[in-house]
Predict the 3D structure of the following.
Amino acid sequence: MPEVMIPFNRSSVAGNELAYMAEAVAGEHISGDGPFSRRCHELLERELGIRKAFLTTSCTHALEMSALLLQIQPGDEVIVPSFTFVSTANAYVLHGARPVFADIRRDTLNLDENQLAEQITPRTKAIVPVHYGGVGCHMDAILEIAGRHGIAVVEDNAHGLFGKYQGRMLGTFGCMATLSFHESKNFTCGEGGALLVNDPQYLERAEIIREKGTNRSRLFRGEVNKYTWMDIGSSYLPSDMLAGFLYGQLEARDVIQSSRRRIWEYYYAQLQSWAMEHNVRLPMVPDDCEHTSHVFYLIMPSPEDRQALIAYLRSHGIYAVFHYLPLHLSEMGRKAAGKTACCPVTEEISSRLIRLPLFYSLTREEQERIIDRVTRFY
Ligand SMILES: Cc1ncc(COP(=O)(O)O)c(C=O)c1O
């Protein structure tokens, strides 16, 4: 009998998501910034202790908003890890910036802060660290270097909502931070994101840029009696139906996080001795980080082993994947950077990394099957 397929990711509900979507429809407000958007904003601001959260249509759009807020111009340079999703770089390239690709640390796969100083030039406008897998970057070192040169730090926190570095929430270190609520993330509304603004100098423009360059938000608050075109901008607000779904997920955050944590820890415990025996590396989480159990990866001894394990698992109905392809080697990455950057750790890791299925509704039986197949691979 063929084995039942285990997907890489499966979306599911954990609480009141569907009821809240229906409530948004019944309340006759399904455009942006309705009651559920407000509840999401309040929850994020309270739990993270930040000045302002703005829901957006994606993390990509939140990153694009940060580029507009930082007034990125052609000729500016933005330092990003090469080991990340396209949007971390593309959001700034869209406004003419040159991406300066940084290599990653071997242990956490986060941007290597030790190489930052030599990458800074008078044109550097921003550093965009990514908390890979929800494990915090070395933020004290990054903020120290950025502060010394007067450079903005925008945290791409697509993976790390409610994760902590040195006891402090990820997303609260930079002048701004971004979140993703894409289906593949810990908390989701299908497609969605948020811009977190920590530095008050960006607050007023953020609100305007997000509302098509208008001061419509002030009209809704009763602060003006008409709204008008104030600045450049676009349409970055998600529908309140999606905000309803997201609010249900955020409300159920403890259930979702503890389930993911259980799955992550079970993988770790069950694969540890197999990994040591076969020279496979498991994720590393520094003592001063509370991670979000967003990814569970294996770093295989060779690219050939990685490909063979993916194929072997696939032949048994298990969908494991790899990512990211190094941005500095992509056609667009080379063109935008004007040269091929030197990121040997990124190249090596990205050719050997495999991600195992990890999602809220993964059952213990499914996980046992995955572990059983992985440990029978060699
Ligand atoms: C590190 C990182 N940044 C940004 C994004 C983009 O997120 P979104 O799909 O919400 O635009 C992703 C998506 O996977 C990501 O992994």
Remarks:
- Residues 253-277 form the longest helix (25 residues).
- The pocket of pyridoxal-5'-phosphate is lined by residues 58-60, 84-85, 87-88, 130, 156, 158, 180, 182, 193 (CB under 6 Å).
- DSSP finds 13 helices and twelve strands in the chain.
- The longest strand covers residues 52-56.
